[in-house]
Amino acid sequence: MPQFDETELTEAVVASFDETPDPRLKHLMRELVRSLHDYVRRTGLTFEEWQKAIDFLTRTGQKCSPSRQEFILLSDVLGVSMLVDAVNHRERDGATQTTVLGPFYVGEHKPMPNGTDISEGVEGERMYVQCHVVDLGGQPLAGVPVDVWHADDDGFYDSQKPSYAEAGPSLRAQFVTDAEGRFAFRTILPCSYPIPIDGPVGELVLAAHRHPMRPAHVHFLVNAPGFEPLITHVFIEGDKYLESDVVFGVKDDLISSVELRNDAVMPDGRDAPGPWHLMTYEFRLKPGRGAAPRPMMAAAAG
Ligand code: BEZ
Ligand code: FE
């Protein structure tokens, strides 16, 4: 009958994966066991703490639904999402920095003509967003689809609202770059907002006396054939949460100054409805391949 001390036990469990035919699965499982066992040894984890952890993970799973992914939120607040992003984007070669996709990308954004106002009927300070998509040599990339989405003035995404199914998309769309690699749209200035805190992840954040806030940003998914899909945000300079984003997603190059303007017309030549903000950003894409992510709702549906 085998009997193991603390260290022998780890090696026995590691060895139990020796016959795994998939070499990557074998490597990942052996390393996971080593790290988990090391954690238990270093912390002297008690039975009560182990049980609390099991209960926490159970409730995290139970909170998941086709429109809510509590495990991704957990990965986000533990910095794992940004670490996976970092190890997979070590060499940028001057390309735009990446950050988390977040849980509010619903995919299949409706294509809209350049210049469309995606904030019809939404209250808030008006903003004009003008962007340029180029390769690493600065050459414009035409015909590139770009999904954009952001929160409203109260910090909510359209997909978080009970009315979403009937009301349809708001503050989200797809634009396609013109012959000069440009796209533009009208919207409102987003504000900082809390991640969902009505679940176990929120409990954890609050128990740690962390705040649940993300600094104001607009999400972009730029997906050009022959280039790595670019998943990123543009953050608004001056936001008080830039230094302490709850999901650790801010990178300096992604912070943009947003100018307050009083011109009577916006850059699209049409009237401005009073003072407005101007966001300007250039996305530089890196040659490569890769599939754009599947939104959480579609992934859950299989
Ligand atoms: C977001 O930016 O939409 C987001 C990202 C991570 C967690 C929650 C929200
Ligand atoms: Fe967001």
Termini distance?
44 Å
- The number of helical runs is 8
Average pLDDT across residues? 93
SSE series = HHHHHEEHEEEHEEEEEEH
Structural class call reads alpha+beta
Strand order of the largest sheet: 3-2-7-8-9
Low-pLDDT stretches are 298-302
Shape: globular
CATH class assignment of the largest domain: Mainly Beta
Q: Mind telling me the CATH superfamily name of the largest domain?
A: Aromatic compound dioxygenase
Helical content (DSSP H or I, runs of 4+): 25-40%
CATH-derived architecture of the largest domain: Sandwich
Task: Note down, in words, how this protein is organized.
The structure is a single chain. This protein has 302 residues and is an alpha+beta fold. It folds into two domains: 6-45; 70-285, Aromatic compound dioxygenase (Protocatechuate 3,4-Dioxygenase, subunit A). The protein is built from eight helices and eleven strands. It has helices spanning 6-15, 23-43, 47-63, 70-77, 80-88, 164-167, 200-207, 296-301, and strands at residues 126-135, 145-149, 172-176, 182-188, 193-194, 213-214, 217-222, 230-236, 255-256, 258-261, 276-285. Strands 3-2-7-8-9 form a five-stranded mixed β-sheet, with no helix packed on it. A hairpin with a 7-residue loop joins strand 7 and strand 8 (230-236). The longest helix has 21 residues, at 23-43. It starts with 5 loop residues before the first helix and ends with a helix. Mean pLDDT is 93; it is low at 298-302. Fe (iii) ion is lined by residues 102, 104, 151, 214, 217, 219. Fe (iii) ion binds at residues 102, 104, 151, 214, 217, 219.
